[in-house]
């Protein structure tokens, strides 16, 4: 007859990717968070590379060219960044739940400090390059003053991790 400790070890071994002390590494919420983050990044990259009108391109009559790709995405213009960064931030917030690795233990500190530092670096990068060289930084060149909103949003997501810190 197995002892209680052996039964717990067998049960933990049967759960794939599970640590009996900390919980599962992969959960549906964590997968959802990763999908939201990937969708946010993909939306921004697709808009910036494939749809956004090139500010240096002109047609044969000297008029600036319009957006390429799907018309509804081109019509959204800067709202594409709201959608992309919104999905990305939502994915980070979903990952702050205790059922995910970033929502418990050391993951909370990593998520919190990571979001705070990324927000701070985003704002500092904007201020350093705002006067002369911002046009050479992808995505930041389209956002102008809205770069501050992106940096503050990263910091706000960091506070969602801070509320989970014990």
UniProtKB/TrEMBL annotation:
<dbReference type="GO" id="GO:0005886">
    <property type="term" value="C:plasma membrane"/>
</dbReference>
<keyword id="KW-0132">Cell division</keyword>
<dbReference type="GO" id="GO:0051301">
    <property type="term" value="P:cell division"/>
</dbReference>
<feature type="transmembrane region" description="Helical">
    <location>
        <begin position="108"/>
        <end position="129"/>
    </location>
</feature>
<comment type="similarity">
    <text>Belongs to the CrgA family.</text>
</comment>
<feature type="transmembrane region" description="Helical">
    <location>
        <begin position="30"/>
        <end position="49"/>
    </location>
</feature>
<dbReference type="InterPro" id="IPR009619">
    <property type="entry name" value="CrgA"/>
</dbReference>
<dbReference type="Pfam" id="PF06781">
    <property type="entry name" value="CrgA"/>
</dbReference>
<keyword id="KW-1003">Cell membrane</keyword>
<protein>
    <recommendedName>
        <fullName>Cell division protein CrgA</fullName>
    </recommendedName>
</protein>
<keyword id="KW-1133">Transmembrane helix</keyword>
<keyword id="KW-0812">Transmembrane</keyword>
<keyword id="KW-0472">Membrane</keyword>
<keyword id="KW-0131">Cell cycle</keyword>
<feature type="transmembrane region" description="Helical">
    <location>
        <begin position="79"/>
        <end position="96"/>
    </location>
</feature>
<comment type="function">
    <text>Involved in cell division.</text>
</comment>
<feature type="transmembrane region" description="Helical">
    <location>
        <begin position="145"/>
        <end position="163"/>
    </location>
</feature>
């Amino acid at each position: 007859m197995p002892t209680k400790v052996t039964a717990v070890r067998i049960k933990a071994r049967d759960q794939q990717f599970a640590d009996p002390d900390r919980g599962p590494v992969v959960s549906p919420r964590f997968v959802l968070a990763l999908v939201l983050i990937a969708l946010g990044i993909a939306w921004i990259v697709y808009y910036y590379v494939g749809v956004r009108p090139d500010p240096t391109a002109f047609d044969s009559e000297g008029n600036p060219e319009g957006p390429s790709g799907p018309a509804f995405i081109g019509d959204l213009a800067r709202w594409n960044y709201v959608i992309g960064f919104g999905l990305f931030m939502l994915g980070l917030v979903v990952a702050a739940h205790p059922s995910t690795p970033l929502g418990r233990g050391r993951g909370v500190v990593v998520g919190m400090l990571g979001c705070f530092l990324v927000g701070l670096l985003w704002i500092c990068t904007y201020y350093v390059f705002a006067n002369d060289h911002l046009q050479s930084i992808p995505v930041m060149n389209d956002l102008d003053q809205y770069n501050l909103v992106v940096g503050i949003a990263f910091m706000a997501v960091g506070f969602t991790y801070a509320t989970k810190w014990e």
